[in-house]
């Protein structure tokens, strides 16, 4: 199987409107008995419940997993906290495509090796599920957007240097497609910039060191890999155009919200999309409440990155108008780093910038947003020869 082929043709058929779950009986909130759909992780909650929830069609998956939520939660726990790292060989395909912060990683053996390295650096590591957006079925493949907190103590050497003894809590998002018990496509943003800073290291100096070292797997990302990252799993036409509906449409809403934030240099009236008291968690330890702070972040990004060719690569969602919608929006843009600020002094370099954003939408407004993007990678791109 050649990397030069289109990942979209090789790997997966895109989702359609019929693949979006409209009830929340299979959701993380239901699975863990949370008070309401859309609530995040609570420190006191039992991470693996006694009952694993209702059964849905899971042909090809291990019988022990009754639904896709249970599959994602328990394989994550088994691999990372039970330390059954070799179980990755049973749950990732031999030729899996994993697009991460830096580039393309191929095959489950690479994932196994990386996981051993991470657990060696953080011996008490936990990957705590905050929430999961899902869509699809066992015939097409289940798509999941897994929001996670990586929690642990850096008591071993890592690729960033000697053990620091620092405690970290880093949010990340992994978008996976699984069929026949194996994940074969993943877009994951590890929020590496936040991790580096929580370790007490200088982010820009670490980026310079990594550029000079030239040993980061998959980096720099070539144009073909960038094209495949953007296209893998993407529909040829937006669901809202291919299958228009009357009334609130999560696909159209998310695409319009993106266009009015990251897709334009000057945004529209964001109160059309966001509640004034929006709660935001983002890359590199950004966390705030309120639309003014959100607008400030967007302004910083637009000053730094200009001449943008922005696009939404994939949208899917779980929920309904009564309980709200959890959405996953994967997006990407080509830009020029022509302004000083969030990514340092202007370099005038061409930049590949991509991210995954999750929303919780209630009564037609975004009340919570989680946005992860490849910040360390962008810094490295600005510093490269």
Topology:
Elements: H1 7-11, H2 28-32, H3 68-80, H4 88-91, E1 92-99, E2 104-106, H5 108-121, E3 126-137, E4 141-153, E5 167-179, E6 182-189, H6 192-198, H7 203-213, H8 223-231, H9 239-242, H10 250-261, E7 274-282, E8 286-289, H11 291-304, E9 305-320, E10 324-337, E11 350-362, E12 365-373, H12 375-383
Parallel strand pairs: 1-6, 7-12
Antiparallel strand pairs: 1-2, 3-4, 4-5, 5-6, 7-8, 9-10, 10-11, 11-12
Characterization of the model:
By secondary structure, the protein is of the alpha+beta class. It has two domains: 7-222, Roll (Nuclear Transport Factor 2, Chain: A); 229-383, Nuclear Transport Factor 2, Chain: A, CATH 3.10.450. 28% of the residues lie in helices and 32% in strands. It contains twelve helices and twelve strands. The strands form two sheets. A six-stranded mixed sheet has the order 2-1-6-5-4-3. This is SnoaL-like domain-containing protein. InterPro entries: Cyclase_SnoaL-like (IPR009959), NTF2-like_dom_sf (IPR032710). Pfam families: SnoaL.
């Amino acid at each position: 199987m050649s990397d030069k082929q289109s990942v979209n043709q090789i790997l997966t058929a895109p989702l359609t409107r019929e693949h979006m779950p409209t009830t929340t009986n299979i959701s993380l909130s239901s699975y863990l008995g949370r008070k309401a759909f859309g609530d995040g992780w609570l420190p006191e909650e039992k991470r693996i419940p006694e009952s694993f929830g209702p059964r849905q069609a899971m042909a090809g998956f291990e019988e022990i997993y009754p639904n896709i939520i249970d599959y994602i939660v328990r394989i994550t726990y088994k691999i990372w906290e039970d330390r059954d790292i070799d179980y990755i060989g049973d749950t990732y395909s031999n030729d899996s495509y994993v697009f991460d912060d830096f580039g393309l990683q191929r095959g489950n053996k690479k994932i196994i090796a990386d996981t051993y390295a991470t657990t060696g650096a953080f011996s008490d590591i936990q990957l705590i599920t905050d929430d999961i957006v899902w869509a699809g079925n066992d015939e097409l493949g289940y798509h999941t957007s897994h929001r996670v907190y990586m929690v642990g103590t850096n008591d071993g050497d890592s690729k960033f240097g000697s053990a620091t003894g620092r405690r970290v809590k880093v949010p990340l998002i992994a978008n996976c497609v699984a069929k026949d018990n194996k994940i074969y496509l993943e877009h994951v943003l590890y929020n590496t910039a936040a991790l580096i800073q929580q370790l007490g290291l200088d982010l820009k100096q670490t980026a310079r060191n990594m550029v000079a070292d030239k040993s980061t797997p998959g980096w720099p990302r070539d144009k073909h890999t960038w094209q495949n990252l953007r296209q893998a799993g993407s529909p040829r036409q937006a669901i809202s155009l291919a299958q228009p509906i009357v009334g609130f449409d999560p696909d159209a809403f998310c695409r319009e919200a993106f266009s009015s934030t990251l897709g334009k240099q000057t945004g529209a009236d964001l109160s059309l999309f966001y509640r004034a008291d929006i709660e935001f968690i983002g890359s590199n330890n950004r966390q705030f409440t309120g639309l003014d702070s959100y607008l400030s972040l967007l302004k910083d990004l637009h000053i730094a990155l200009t001449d943008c060719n922005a696009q939404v690569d994939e949208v899917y969602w779980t929920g309904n108008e009564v309980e709200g919608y959890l959405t996953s929006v994967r997006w990407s843009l080509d830009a020029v780093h022509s302004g000083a600020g969030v990514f340092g002094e202007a370099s005038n370099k061409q930049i590949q910038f991509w991210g995954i954003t999750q929303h919780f939408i209630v009564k037609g407004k975004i009340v919570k947003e989680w946005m992860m993007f490849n910040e360390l990678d962008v810094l490295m791109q600005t510093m490269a020869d």
